[in-house]
Structure formats: structure tokens, C-alpha cells
Design a protein that fits this description.
Blueprint (H helix, E strand, L loop, with lengths): L1 E5 L4 H10 L5 E5 L9 H11 L3 E4 L13 H22 L3 E6 L22 H16 L3 E6 L2 E2 L6 H11 L2 E5 L3 E2 L2 E2 H18 L5 E4 L6 E2 H15 L7 E5 L31 H13 L5
Parallel strand pairs: 1-2, 1-3, 3-4, 4-5, 5-10, 6-9, 7-12
Antiparallel strand pairs: 8-11
Helix pairs in contact: 1-6, 2-3, 3-4, 5-7, 7-8
Length: 296
């Protein structure tokens, strides 16, 4: 099976390359420098030339706070870029698996968000990602949206790596405790996408539409940080851990408003063997890779 991957240098892109390495699939990966999805001609040429069996779009503008001032840049990638992929895929009858975000919701919920729940983004980033979902639905028949949240991995920049870096220099840290979500290991998300690709290869069908995929248990950023430090101490990544203080979102203002509650319900793909990842186990796996990457 020939898979076209965009965003190969991102967390998900790198993890997807890792999981595909042990398969017989032919993976054609592009970075943003190699394939700028903001340009329709570039996208059409790449898709036409490679003739993939399926497209996995992991390319995205993810600078949540910067997007508040750079809305054109966010929409160019997250909306127009997705539309270009959708049009090219539709022309050749190629399905797309596209990754979206919990930020399409306003965070005012009290129960896990279902894929069918009303969207109401409160940030430019969330609005641009929702616009991408809508462009995909408008211009492509065979598409699957996977909304995810709180992504971490041994690659790139993420909350886990930020906490470990700060722990090296500080004796105390204050972390927001009134925002709740489900941490998601990019490797688990990559394996979920691979399962979907394999299913499409076998059946030429998928559960088209919008779905959710994230870690299994909700926590706060404060709770996530506490778990990171505990596991890092056990593994010898940290000799000491900073004192953690729980603070409110009001005490840590950001340019872009964060959802207070972004827990996602991930039941719709269970029949295909796709289930939420155990983020506690995946965090341990991730930290071990960061400690001794040669072993892995």
C-alpha cells in the first residue's frame, strides 16, 4: 500500500514513520519544505505524481497563541491547505485521514465530547482547524477526521519535554489545574491511523466522517505534570523534582483561551480495533526512549 504523509517532521509525522517502518507499506513522506500544502499546484502535482492509495495529513499550523495574531497563516495551512488536499484527492478517488483538534469545542462541556456534538471554537487556531474539517467534508467524499488532544512524544516540542526542561532549572513550578483533557501519545495515534490504513487496504472502506482519538483517562495539566515528574524520577531522568503548585487559568493568562474541558469520547472506531491509548503506559515508554533512544 502506498501512503502519502504530510507533516513528516511533526510529532505525529515522525511517529507515523516509526510505526510504518516495520510494515510493507510504501510511505512517501513530505515536510512542509518539500510539499507546501498552502499551494494548490504543489499539492495537485505531488498527489498526481505519487498516486497514493491513501493520504494521511499530519501537516498543521499549531502555534495556538501566535495564531491569534497570525490568523492568515493559520487559515492558510489548516483550512486552505486541507481544501487543496481534499480537491486533489477527490479528483483521483483517494481517501484522506486528517488530524484535527479538541479546540473545535468551547470547553464548556461537563461530559466527554462526542464527534456529533456542536462545535464552537474560541480561538483562531480552533476556528482554522474547524474550517479545515468543513473544507474536507465539502470537497472530498472519502475522508476521515480524527480529532485528538494534548499530544506528546519524544519528538518536537510538547508539554512533557517542557516540564522536564523546567525541572532541570527550577525548584518549584506552578501549573494550571482547572483545565481537563486526555493526554495522547503521538505513537498511539500513529498506530491508530495505521490500523485504519490497513483496514482500508483490506476492505476499501472506512467509517467516513468525524471521529475522536485520545488517551484513555482525563487529567489536569497539574495532574499530568505530577505524573511526568513521578515517572521521570523512577526512571532516573530527574534526580529531584520541583515542588508543584496548582493554579487557576486566571493566574496563568495566555493570548489564546484554552478549553476548560476537552475530554473526547472515543467509541466510534472501536469496531475497527481502534481504542484509546493508555497514556500512563505510553508516557513511560516515551520517557524511556528519551532516556536511552539507542535502545529503542
Amino acid at each position: 500500500m502506498r501512503i502519502l504523509l504530510t507533516g513528516k517532521h511533526g510529532q505525529l509525522g515522525r511517529c507515523f514513520q516509526d510505526v510504518c517502518a516495520a510494515t510493507n507499506h510504501e510511505l512517501i513522506s513530505y515536510s512542509s519544505d518539500e510539499l507546501d500544502i498552502r499551494h494548490a499546484g504543489h499539492v495537485s502535482s505531488a498527489v498526481t505524481t505519487t498516486q497514493p492509495d491513501i493520504i494521511v495529513n499530519a501537516a498543521a499550523y499549531t502555534a495556538v497563541d501566535n495564531a491569534e495574531k497570525e490568523s492568515d497563516a493559520a487559515y492558510a495551512v489548516n483550512a486552505q491547505g486541507v481544501e487543496h488536499l481534499a480537491r486533489a484527492a477527490q479528483q483521483l478517488g483517494i481517501p484522506i485521514i486528517h488530524v484535527s483538534t479538541d479546540y473545535v469545542f468551547d470547553g464548556a462541556g461537563v461530559e466527554p465530547y462526542k464527534p456529533s456534538d456542536l462545535t464552537r471554537p474560541c480561538t483562531v487556531y480552533g476556528a482554522s482547524k474547524l474550517a479545515g474539517e468543513q473544507a474536507l467534508a465539502e470537497h472530498c467524499t472519502k475522508y476521515m477526521v480524527l480529532r485528538t488532544a494534548w499530544v506528546f512524544s519524544e519528538y518536537g516540542n510538547n508539554f512533557v519535554k517542557t516540564m522536564l526542561r523546567l525541572a532541570q532549572d527550577r525548584d518549584a513550578l506552578s501549573v494550571v489545574a482547572d483545565q481537563y483533557g486526555c493526554p495522547t501519545y503521538a505513537g498511539d495515534l500513529a498506530r491508530a491511523i495505521l490500523i485504519l490504513c490497513n483496514h482500508y487496504q483490506q476492505t476499501h472502506e472506512l467509517a467516513w466522517g468525524v471521529h475522536h482519538y485520545c488517551g484513555d483517562l482525563p487529567t489536569s495539566w497539574h495532574g499530568f505534570a505530577r505524573t511526568i515528574f513521578g515517572k521521570s524520577r523512577e526512571l532516573g531522568l530527574l534526580k529531584t523534582t520541583p515542588q508543584l503548585t496548582a493554579i487557576s487559568s486566571e493566574q496563568y493568562p495566555t493570548p489564546a483561551e484554552r478549553p476548560e474541558y476537552s475530554v473526547l469520547e472515543c467509541l466510534t472506531l472501536s469496531e475497527l480495533g481502534v481504542r484509546p491509548g493508555n497514556w500512563h503506559e505510553s508516557l513511560s515508554h516515551c520517557l524511556k526512549k528519551m532516556k536511552d533512544p539507542v535502545v529503542y
